[in-house]
């Protein structure tokens, strides 16, 4: 058997459905559009269909439940092609996150894109797309452009200040979108489905990138460009102490679930 | 269906991984005008390394410069890892610096014109690395930091992508100066083709933020035939000017001030990374001695009008190249990422102040002390 075929089969075996999050933990984000810092057709914002998004990032406590049910994603079991060496290595053991140290309600970090995918899939969802995540992130309520710039300046300051050893609990940032999505900023970075858009190659990570990404001409896009550049450096097996995730759900999926209840 | 979804995911994952490993045109080495070009392709990999973060015989802590105790050219193996360290930049002002080697500025590398450097750098921004304990196999830099922990370092963790851009190297930046993710290591060769003092810095966007957060240092490349006054020089030092753009954060620590950086309004302008370090630990010399200062302005955005109160620079080599000699200069204007090698005769026993004569910078900290003892008989 070809090695890659083995891995594919391994993935199939790993596909177990364990809904880990309650329906009340997600909110409806209506369809809309937004301007990205990535190059786009002039004047045409990116359209985004309606979807559901988790209110907060997935916590250590929730991820323990997931690895308890899906032993393939435990630290000692996960194949190295699906996660770097530091996968969950701040946990005490396979099933003990060391809650006193890491905090039950803190976002789980040091998880790879593969493992985040598996979790969301098991929860009946998927990772949000780049556009969904960024669109939701722009649904913050600002009274004025000045207020938005002040927020973005503080966000850039946060990048410079934060220590991954001291991350707060989910819901602790007081940053919430108009639809009730919390902590998209100020807590951790989050995986999205297509974290390295094809355009990433053309942009190249050089010093002009920030300037070129600043389409919106304000500090918000500067903060966004730092986010995009950081994402572009990741590989799907990347695991860092500042990288967590939340799940999104198709509108149909939610309805189906409802009907079956 | 869940299975096909995950399978698809995996295939997308492979695609991403494929995108990350873009191939580069392979150069082969050639010589032109006495210089060597065409370095092998850089390698990016993950390694299980937790050894000393700074390695290399000729790598020191500012203001020291390792003497080149070898003849001709040498092949250097140098490692400078990336780490986050909480450091002090002035009394009561501490922040989580993004560093090369653990200090701001990073370590000084000393080589000779024509030397080859094989450079290794691991992005350890996602792990706690202690740099204040002497470690076996580490550079002299490690011992010097352990003995003189002026910034009172504390390890911190903030995973970010980073890169290394050595101005002393002449290479294709999309290969050698590649951005690496936390946990990755990059390894490449370069030849120090031109003599002088050259800044190195992180080239990952935002370059302004990465450099202002502390990711810069200096490579001193001594000319292969030396400077005309080499035999008369009693002491050699390296002085680096740079700016910080900090404001008080919500807790104890300071943080990056975007507005200040965007408007070139630094909170601190300093020599060798700390507002008072060059007064607390003055440079020393004696009356009648010729001293040499390798001065670099690492910016990120300011200029420096470097002067020594009470002295005149006897010789100045702009950028440190022996062909660029000037004499009798009171002040040397150095732009961001520029440098000068300066000889000064210490006229009398006493105290001299190194200063950026752009006084707004001086009053934000860009001063230092040279303490001269009596004339040696």
Strand order of the largest sheet of chain B: 19-16-21-26-23-24
Element order of chain A: H for helix, E for strand: HEEEEHHHHHEHHHEEH
Average pLDDT figure of chain A: 84
CATH-level-2 architecture of the largest domain in chain B: Sandwich
Structure classification of chain B = mainly beta
How many domains make up the coordinates of chain B? 2
Please identify the top-level CATH class of the domain at 21-142 and 166-197 and 235-253 in chain A: Alpha Beta
Beta content of chain B: 35-45%
Task: Estimate the mean pLDDT confidence of chain B.
Answer: 93
**Low-pLDDT segments of chain A:** 1-19, 256-261
- Count of beta strands of chain A: 7
**Biggest pleated sheet of chain A:** 3 strands, antiparallel
Total beta strand runs of chain B: 28
For the largest interface, the chains and their residue counts are: A-B, 60 and 55 residues
Q: How would you describe what is shown here?
A:
- The complex is a heterodimer of chains A (261) and B (377).
- By secondary structure, chain A is mainly α.
- Chain A has a domain at 21-142 and 166-197 and 235-253: paralog of FGE (formylglycine-generating enzyme).
- Helix content of chain A is 36%, strand content 8%.
- A 3-stranded antiparallel beta sheet of chain A has the order 1-4-7. In chain A, strands 2-3 form a two-stranded antiparallel ribbon. In chain A, strands 5-6 form a two-stranded parallel sheet.
- The radius of gyration of chain A is 18 Å and the shape is globular.
- The N and C termini of chain A lie far apart (42 Å).
- Chain B has 377 residues and is mainly β.
- Chain B has 2 domains: 34-222, Cupredoxins -  blue copper proteins (Immunoglobulin-like), CATH 2.60.40.420; 230-248 and 268-373, Cupredoxins -  blue copper proteins (Immunoglobulin-like), CATH 2.60.40.
- Chain B contains 7 helices and 28 strands.
- In chain B, the strands form 7 sheets. Chain B has a 6-stranded mixed beta sheet with strand order 19-16-21-26-23-24, with no helix packed on it.
- In chain B, strand 1 and strand 2 (35-37) form a beta hairpin.
- The longest helix of chain B has 19 residues, at 2-20.
- Chain B starts with a helix and ends with a strand.
- The chains are: A mainly alpha (261), B mainly beta (377).
- At the A-B interface, helix 1, helix 4, helix 6 and helix 9 of A face helix 1 and helix 4 of B.
């Amino acid at each position: 058997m070809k090695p890659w075929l083995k891995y594919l089969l391994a993935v199939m075996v790993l596909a177990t459905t364990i809904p880990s999050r309650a329906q009340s933990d997600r909110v409806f984000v209506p369809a809309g559009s937004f301007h990205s810092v990535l190059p786009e057709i002039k004047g045409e914002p990116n359209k985004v269909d309606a979807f559901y998004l988790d209110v907060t990032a997935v916590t250590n406590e929730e991820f323990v439940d997931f690895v308890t049910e899906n032993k393939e994603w435990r630290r000692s079991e996960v194949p190295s092609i699906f996660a770097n060496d530091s996968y969950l290595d701040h946990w005490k053991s396979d099933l003990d996150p060391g809650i006193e140290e890491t905090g039950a309600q803190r976002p789980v970090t040091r998880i790879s894109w593969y493992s985040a995918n598996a979790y969301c899939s098991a929860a009946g969802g998927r990772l949000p797309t780049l556009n969904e995540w960024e669109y939701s992130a722009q649904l913050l309520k600002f009274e004025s452009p000045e207020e938005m710039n002040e927020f973005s300046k503080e966000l850039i300051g946060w990048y410079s200040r934060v220590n991954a050893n001291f991350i707060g609990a989910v819901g602790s940032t007081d940053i919430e979108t108009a639809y009730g999505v919390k902590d998209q900023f100020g807590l951790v970075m989050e995986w999205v489905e297509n974290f390295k858009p094809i355009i990433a190659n053309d942009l190249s990570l050089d010093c002009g990138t920030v300037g070129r990404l600043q389409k919106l001409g304000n500090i918000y896009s500067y903060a966004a460009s730092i986010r995009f550049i950081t994402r572009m450096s990741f590989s799907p097996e990347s695991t860092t102490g500042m990288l967590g995730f939340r799940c999104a759900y198709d509108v149909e999926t939610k309805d189906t679930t409802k009907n079956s209840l | 269906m869940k299975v096909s979804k995950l399978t698809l995911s995996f295939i997308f994952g492979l695609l991403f991984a494929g995108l990350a490993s873009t191939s580069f045109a392979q150069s082969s080495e050639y010589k032109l005008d006495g210089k060597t070009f065409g370095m092998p392709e850089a390698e990016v990999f993950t390694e299980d390394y937790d050894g000393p973060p700074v390695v290399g015989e000729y790598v020191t802590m500012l203001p020291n410069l390792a003497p080149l105790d070898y003849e001709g050219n040498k092949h250097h193996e140098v490692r400078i890892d990336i780490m986050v360290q909480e450091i002090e930049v002035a009394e009561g002002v501490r922040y989580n610096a993004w560093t090369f080697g653990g200090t701001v500025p990073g370590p000084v590398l000393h080589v000779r014109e024509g030397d080859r450097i094989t450079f290794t750098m691991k992005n350890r921004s996602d792990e706690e690395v202690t740099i204040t304990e002497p470690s076996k196999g580490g550079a002299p830099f490690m011992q010097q930091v352990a003995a003189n922990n002026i910034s009172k370092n504390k390890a911190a963790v903030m995973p970010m992508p980073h890169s290394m851009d050595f101005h002393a190297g002449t290479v294709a930046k999309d290969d050698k100066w590649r951005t690496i993710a936390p946990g990755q290591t990059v390894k490449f060769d370069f030849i120090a083709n031109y003599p002088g003092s050259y800044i190195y810095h992180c080239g990952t966007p935002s370059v302004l933020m990465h450099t202002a957060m502390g990711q810069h240092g200096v490579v001193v490349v001594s000319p292969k035939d030396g400077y005309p006054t080499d035999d008369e020089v009693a002491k050699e030092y390296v002085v680096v000017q740079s700016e910080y753009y900090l404001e008080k954060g919500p807790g104890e620590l300071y943080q990056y001030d975007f507005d200040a950086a965007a408007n070139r309004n630094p909170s601190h302008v300093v020599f060798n990374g700390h507002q008072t370090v060059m007064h607390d630990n003055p440079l020393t010399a004696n009356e009648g001695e010729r001293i040499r200062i390798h001065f670099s302005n690492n910016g990120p955005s300011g200029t420096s009008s470097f002067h020594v109160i009470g002295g005149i620079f006897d010789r100045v080599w702009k950028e440190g190249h022996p062909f660029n000699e000037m004499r009798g200069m009171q002040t040397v204007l150095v732009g961001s990422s520029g440098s000068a090698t300066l000889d000064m005769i210490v006229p009398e026993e006493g105290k001299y102040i190194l200063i950026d004569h752009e006084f707004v910078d001086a009053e934000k900290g860009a001063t230092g002390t040279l303490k001269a003892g009596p004339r040696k008989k």
